[in-house]
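[scheduler] slot 2 assigned
[scheduler] job type: sequence-to-structure, two independent chains
[scheduler] chain ordering preserved from manifest
[runner] begin chain α
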Amino acid sequence: MSIITITGFTGEQPRIINRLLPPHAAADAVELRMDDGGLTPFSVPEIEHTFPGTPNYQSIYKHGTTWLGWATQAWAVPGPVADDRLYVTQVGQPPKMIVGGTTYDLAVPAPTTKPTLTPSGAGSGDVTVRNYVYTYVTAFGEESEPSPISDPINWQTGITVTLSGILAPPGGRNITLQRFYRTQTGTAGTDLYFIAERAASAANFVDNIPVTQFAERLPSRTYNPPPAGLLGLTALPNGMMAGFVGKTLYFCEPYLPHAWPEVYAQTVEAEIVGLGAMDVQLVVITKGQPWRAAGTEPASMSMSKIETNLPGVSSYGIVDLGYAIAWAAPDGLAIAKSSGEVGLVSDNLFNPRDWRALNPAAMRAGQYHGRWIASFDGVDPITDEPKSGSIIIDPAGDVAYLIRSKIIARSWYFDVPSGDLFYLDPDGKNVRRFDPEQGAPAIYYWRSKDYYMPIDDNFGCILVESGEGFSELEAAAKQSVVAAIIAQNQAMITAGTVTGSINSQSINNDVFAGDNLLPIPAGAGGTFSLGVYCNDVKVATIGKRDRVERLPSGFLGRKWALDVFADVPIDKITMARTVDEIKQAQAA
């Protein structure tokens, strides 16, 4: 018995064919895997947003209903303290905070000069040494580091202290308040304690506050501003955020994204490429071996090196899949799971040479429902010709699977609430929705790998079983595409720009005596062609589904392959010597 059965053309959506379902159990059947390449039958992408002007963006993010774009790589994270705040690190720019459409530098400037103390009045009783500092506070409740501490002054009951040299805050950070602290002895010992708050001002401050009226200790003594070159902003549980500069990993104060104490910084051996968060773990991808940081607060984060040679080749290739962190490594796609498992998942899809031909250092990656998707711009290792497009790798199961697409994206953005994937066109201007739910199905091409029979053989029949078909909305979308093409063709005919006549177009630009009218596709679900190849020769073309079709006889071969050109979903293909064998495979 000789049977080839291909199953699992459809998966989570009827338009995704390269997703393998549970293996077919027919005896003596050869199972063809769906990871051999070809274009994917996603819907035609729709423009979601067009940035005004002539932007040349590299990164995008949807903040509420507003699309944001940046000219260099950027990492945007919603704030852990308020719904309207977005925090951004960007190549070539200091860290930013966006509130209500206004962008601020994330760092809150601190006073740069110490206050000058002037005592007045007669004092009595014990002498106490006092020092003072003051801070700035923004309208968003962010407190700066303190000013340099004042020179000490001897104080007794009855003395009033005037603080002069108070600097008015700089503009641009919405600083509205000043807070004053003085040394005081409390139950926790002598420290700087809060005594007063006032509107931001350059006027002198007079301290006549009783010794018993003091409140919290100075909280911001270690509130260092974020490093100017901070990159890779990543959200962690418990209000934490992480970022990096060079080999150094930084953490913010919990729920205070403007404060990045240097005491929390940790250094690794190689330059950091990017970060990915899982639960209370942070995967640190470097140009050497990856690291793992774990902990529930910045002060207790422990670092451990992952003993595997899986460096990251680009921060653009690092993606949080929800259940794992994936990144482009020199030899393939690497992932790290919260269970501790780390390794390559693309060994069955690419050998190192073919992977490197995709130029992984230049890949732009995102995630689509747990799959890693990346655009590439490489060179075919055999023909030495440019090769570009996108690949989708699904590493969730025991074996990774591959889907290919013609789409080229500068940046990807996965909207978690809606489950929609968006991408930025190569023009850096248009944002498109990937595989829109009600979009017209695109034509796809799929080809199997070559399969070798034990002996020379001939297949006599084939059955292609279709999927669920298209909904009315999808059919209407396809027809709208047809209508648009007809209208465009009519416009060219009216304008006389069809170039159908001799000498109206340069040689080799169009088919001789042809025209440049757009081809009109068939209606929804109307495009299907399957090719059967024996020993690299196309021996049959099948145009029918859901019925057994005869294959030509009169030859034998060991090497067989199939390809599909269609816009319809397909569940299974079964090819056998006889109809009875197909029936047996169906009953198995």
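[runner] end chain α
[runner] begin chain β
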Amino acid sequence: MADLQDEIVALRTQVAALTARLYRVEQRLGLESEQPQEPPKAVREVPKAPYPLVPPSSPVKTSQPPSIAPPTFASSLAAPEKEQEELEGKIGKLWLNRIGIVAILIGVSYFIKYAFDNGWIGPAGRVALGLLAGIALIFWSERFRARGHAPFSYSLKAVGIGTLYLSLWGAFQVYHLVPPPAAFVAMILVTAATVTLALTQDAEILAAFALVGGFSTPVLLSTGQNHEIVLFSYVALLDLAMLVVVRMKPWRRLLVGSFTGTAILYGGWFFAYYRRDERLVTTLFTLVFAAIFAAIPLLTPLTRSRWHAGFSITLTFLPLVNAGCVFLCLNAMYENDTLTWFSLALAAAYLVLSSQFKRRVGSEPDVVKTINLLHVAIAVAFITIAIPLKLNSHWITLGWLVESAVLLYISVRTNTNFLRYFAAVTLSLGILRLLVWDNFQVQRLLFNARFATYLVAIAILGGIVVTANRSAGTRELLAVRLASILLNVLALVGLTLEASDFFLRRMDGLYQIYPPATYHQLNLARNFSYSLIWIAYGAGLMMFGFRKRSAFVRWQALVLIAFTIGKVFLFDVSELQQGYRILSFIALGGVLMGISYVYHRDWLKLGTGAKSSEAPLA
């Protein structure tokens, strides 16, 4: 133990000597070095080493462990101190800045008001003072931007630009010093100068100031008179200017602001001044505005470096709103016949726009696919709207059914899942209208418009089921099974309605000639025909399920047969005559015995636990 202690003392002595020697060498070479820390008291009084120091010619080879800085309180307190410094800087640089600007403006406003009240400054002087103050603020703000205080500079510019607009408004509306064209041109120059500043200084906030000022100009200079051509021409030019700015800079939010401003000015004018004799001009400008905002995907940059990651609201939400607003405006001006052609023309335009966009952009597959499908969806919506506008009665239902079939065919051939949703919506509208809304006047059995429409819907659902057997996945299994159920429901409803109308036509023709007893016989025959149709259809559906080895189809048949059993035992027994009652029970019993025989033979090997090779459709 004593030897170990002596070795430790010797090592400490050697380290202290080497440290002092290294410090003296650095001092002679003129190198900057920190003053060596004073060794501890135990090392300061170096005892005589029991072992000789290692000479420089024979250095001791030791493995030096990496130095680890000891933890300090500074590292644990750095984050709170940094947050306090950021908060302090934000208050001092931002909020005190804005409060100071507001205080100065309030003080200047009180001074100007005092001068106005005492007649020191006349109307022309007031306007000139406002213009000079606005220009001075803009030039003064440049000094702060040059020194690196951009936010403060933009705040001053906002005040200066607003002062210029208000001064021009006062010169025209309040003091009537300038005519409307002069004030209009002056405000356009202010807007153009602001846009130029935004582009040269790469400041989106200045472009937003220009956008607000540009759309405020017609409101500030309004005379209460109808100047449709001048107003809408100016708005169209302003929209095009914003589109050019966005093409040069990735400031996509300006387009949303431009669309909002256009919609506000258009709506305000329409509700105040629109007359039917101005419909042609209004329609022309409506289509111009629609074209400008529909062309955004073709005229704006789409690379990831120019647009943010993901899909922007400008390319997804804005086209939908634009299309809806255009249709609402046209709907307010035209009747159904003309509106149908507008809907079809808009659908064609969006299809062309979709193809042109896909041809133009090839480097961003996700963006291209989304926007392309969005335009196709808008076109489909316009076609769906056009059908009920032009057609009537069951032709609307037939048009929706055919449209859904076309969409399904395109979606399968092009592997576009997006179109399947629109096809499902259109098909649902057609089936719902067929079951609830349509009122057919039928004169023939089976060979009539109603049964033909039912056959079209059944054929489409059958096509869905057959196609799904080849390509449907597990996620689509529920939709395919729903299509299979709807197919059978439509078939049953269609056959039942045919039987009902067949007997009703005979009853209406015989009511005036034959006694009521004959009329009652026909009514009993009609009710019996329902049971016969349902039993026969259930038996056929069961045989189809056995042949296709589909448990889902067999379960549908069992449900239908159970429903028919309930009708026979609860209704036919009490309502039908003896002959129809006998036939109902014999037919039902025969079908049930036949199905039971098939299950007893176990042709599907259900008793052995073998699984049926069931397809997704059934």
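[runner] end chain β
[qc] chain β: Residues 1-53 form one domain.
[scheduler] slot 2 released
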